[in-house]
Amino acid sequence: MKKILAFALTAAVSAGAFAQEFPAKPITIVVPFAAGGPTDLVARQLAEAMRKPLGGVNIVVENAAGAGGTIGATKVARAAPDGYTVLVWHIGMAATTSLYRKQAFQPLEDFEFLGMINDVPMTLLGAPKLPANTYRDFENYIRANGGKLNLAHAGLGSASHLCGLMWQSAMKLDKSMTTIAYRGTGPAMNDLIGGQVDVMCDQTTNTTSQIEAGRVKAFAVTTAKPLSNHRLLKDYPSLQEMGLKNFNLTIWHGMYAPKGTPAAVTKKLNDALVVALKDPEFIKRQEQLGAMVVTDNRMTPAGHRNFVAAEVTKLKGVIDAAGQFAD
Ligand code: ASP
Predict the structure, then answer these.
(1) What is the pTM of this model?
(2) Mean pLDDT to the nearest integer, 231-253
C-alpha cells in the first residue's frame, strides 16, 4: 500500500513538473490535408500567432493527408498525450463518424478539446472553360451534363466532399457528377484551374485569391445569406436564394490534443490559442480570407466540445438524408 502511494505521489509530482516546463521542445500541429490548402493555411497562420504566447517555442506544421482527414486525426489520437502533437481539423471531425463505418477514433472520446478557431464559408467553383457565368446557367449546365462532369474533393469526409454531397442531393440531379478525391483541395485547385476537373466546392480561405486572379469561376456561396460584407464574394448569391431550400453550410476548425494530455498542459495550449485568436493581426488575416474567428464561448474546451457534439448529431441527419457514403 505504502509503495503504491509513493509511486502515485512520484507520478503526480513528475506530471506537475513536466506541465510546468511545457513547452520545452517544438510542438507539431498535424494538418490532415495537403500543404497549400485551406486548412493548412489556417494552421500556419495560427502557428505563427501561438508562438509568442507559448514562450517563443517552434511550432511545426506537419501535413498527414489522406482519407478525408482521418489519417492525420488517427495519428494524433494515437500520439503521446504530452501536448507536443496536436491536431487542427475542421467539420470532418464531426462528419466522419457518420461516413466511415470503421473509424480508428471517436471524436468525443479520443481527444482533449483545446478550443475552436474559426468559421469558414464555402464557394461553388467551376473550371474557367465552363460555358456558364451565373449560378442559374451553372446549375442548368450540370443538369444537362451531370454524368460527364467531374467534381473534385479532398476525400471522403472532407468539407469539399460534404458540400458536394449536400449540394448534389439538394439539386436532385438525375445523374450525379463523378467525384475525384485528392489529398487536399490545394492540389485539387490546380486541376480545376487547369480544367482536368470541372467543379469544386471549397473553403473561402482557399478560393478567394484564385477568384480574384480570375483563375476559376465562382457561382455561389454556401451560407444561408450572401456574404454581404465580403470584399470579393459579396455579389455571389447563396444557394438558398437560388432555390435550394434550407441549404446552409459553414465549416469550422478546432484544435485537439490526444486524450489523457495533462490538464495543466491543455490549459497552456488553450491560453495560447485564445491569445492568438484575439491578436488583431491574426483576425485581420483571417478576415481577408473570408474566415471569421469564433466567439469567446467557443474558444473554451467545454464550448468546443459541446459544439462538436451537436454537430455530430446534426451531420448524421444530413449525411443519412443525402444517402450516399462512399464514392
Ligand atoms: N480543408 C481541406 C484542405 O485543406 C479541404 C476540404 O476539407 O475540402 O485541403
Answers:
(1) 0.91
(2) 94
